[in-house]
Amino acid sequence: MGDLFLNIFLVAKFIFILLLFIALVLSIIYLAKKISRVV
């Protein structure tokens, strides 16, 4: 049972990091578009 909980925790952590990375990439793209529009 402990192993199952550990696996769920690792998967949840991986998904959280993945979502954080996607959000970061999207915000960088958004800012780049905003800056390029001004220039």
From TrEMBL:
The chain crosses the membrane at residues 6-32. It comes from the Bacteria. Keywords: Membrane, Transmembrane, Transmembrane helix. This is Uncharacterized protein. It comes from Enterococcus durans. The lineage of its organism: Bacteria, Bacillati, Bacillota, Bacilli, Lactobacillales.
